[in-house]
Specification:
Blueprint (H helix, E strand, L loop, with lengths): L1 H20 L4 H9 L1 H10 L3 H17 L19 E6 L5 E5 L2 E5 L4 E4 L14 E6 L3 E6 L4 E5 L5 E4 L14 E6 L5 E5 L2 E6 L4 E5 L16
Antiparallel strand pairs: 1-2, 2-3, 3-4, 5-6, 6-7, 7-8, 9-10, 10-11, 11-12
Length: 225
């Protein structure tokens, strides 16, 4: 059996020489992986550990280097030049959403569609100056600069705005939203310039977390979360 394995090994090693002398070949690479256990057994029997590690490392490096990696320039919608791009995320459908300082953009792999504030439409984006964005299955959460948190319904394409209200302790703690995160328990955390907020999208209510100088277990700093 060992002789049969050695013949198979010599055949694979001959293919390796052809691989190095010609060019990388994906079919050969897959064939090599399929025969890898036999190669390991024979070479372990020969105590050629160093050869195995060196050969595999070199092969993987060459294979990865041969991949075609290139970059394409994503152009903004016609006559809408990019502002500062603040955040990018991808939704469950594969669309990219770009939060910029001049609006929200959806990229489908071919073109961008812009969403902007419309003063006469309360269901539009609350502000064109965006700070951050988070994608869920059916909606987006968008942090704005000075106009609070926007929720964008991906089915109806309507925006709902949540803002700071001094008379409502269950409202957002500040209208400058700089970060959005969802934890493993499914809770949404909103960072603002005036503390941290836990957001419930079902009720639209917030729980505020701020620094309390008399409580060593409170948030260390209320500003710029």
């Amino acid at each position: 059996m060992v002789e049969s394995c050695e013949r198979k090994l010599r055949k694979v090693e001959e293919q390796c020489l052809q691989f190095y002398s010609i060019s990388i070949n994906k079919n050969f690479f897959l064939s090599f992986i399929a025969n890898l256990p036999i190669i390991l057994i024979i070479n372990l029997m020969r105590r050629r550990h160093l050869f195995i590690l060196t050969f595999i490392s070199t092969l993987l490096c060459i294979y990865c280097a041969a991949q075609d990696i290139h970059f394409d320039l994503v152009k903004p919608p016609k006559e809408e030049p990019w502002g500062w791009l603040r955040s990018i995320t991808q939704d469950s459908q594969g669309f990219l959403w770009i939060a910029a300082e001049d609006g929200l953009y959806k990229y489908d792999g071919y073109k961008c569609t812009g969403y902007h504030n419309e003063p006469s439409n309360i269901n539009s984006l609350s502000s064109n100056w965006l700070e951050c964005i988070y994608a869920e299955k059916d909606f987006l959460l968008i942090g704005t600069h000075r106009t609070g948190l926007d929720r964008f319904d991906l089915l109806t394409c309507q925006f709902t705005n949540y803002r700071y209200n001094a008379k409502d302790p269950a409202s957002l703690s500040n209208d400058i939203v700089t970060s959005i995160l969802k934890d493993r328990q499914g809770r949404y955390w909103i960072g603002t310039h005036e503390g941290l907020n836990q957001f419930n999208p079902l009720t639209g209510k917030f729980i505020r977390y701020k620094n309390n100088p008399t409580d060593s277990f409170s948030l260390s700093d209320t500003r710029y979360v």
